[in-house]
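Quick question, first post here. What does this chain look like in 3D?
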Amino acid sequence: MSNRQEFIANIAKKLGRPTPSSVTPVEVTYPLFQTNSPEERLEHFLKMFETMGGKVAKAATSAEATEALKAWFGEKPEWLGSNKVITWNELPTMARACLEGLGWSARVYADLPANREERYAIMDKAELGITGVDYGIVQSGSLVLKSNTQRGRAVSLIPIRHLAFIPASVIRDRLDQVLAELKQSPIPAAIEIISGPSRTSDIEMDLSIGVHGPVELYCIVMDNQ
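> Answer (accepted):
Ran it through. Tokens below.
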């Protein structure tokens, strides 16, 4: 008799029951979260993103996106300056148009010094990291980002603020749908799933914001893509 069988037999004896000789599979079913249309999916995503503590706006044009950024940050934020805005190399056209329209200078992560210490010395002082997004998840209000040499994950993790641009067309209802699509292409070294600003309560159950990542999270949903 194996250890497993002995263990089960001992439990059965304690319960005053015969030792089971076989196991009948139990079929478990549960309802899956699902929206009924792209419009409903988008509206639910916007609500859940804000519920998770982020700020979000829809924009069909770069002009609309620029107005949203002005509402959040002002035309010339007090923190704006040299090396204060870091972006992915691969940035959506709308994001670049917003930077140009606002006159904000930005550095590209892949062009930062190759030396790790020098690179992270710059990143530590960055106020805003700007990225694209590969997928959105309605059920949890999450952003999913794949990293590579042109999309340094530090851009979304180190600066105080993270601004993400996501096409409405890549928003999915659930995580399992995103994972199924991710498996269709080579898996990158890192995949980030971001659900609101960084938060933790593992020290004396005291909620702290920004310990492991940005204090503020912003998202522009590109409603025409």
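Residues 37-222 form a domain with the Rossmann fold fold (CATH 3.40.50.10420).
The chain has seven helices and twelve strands.
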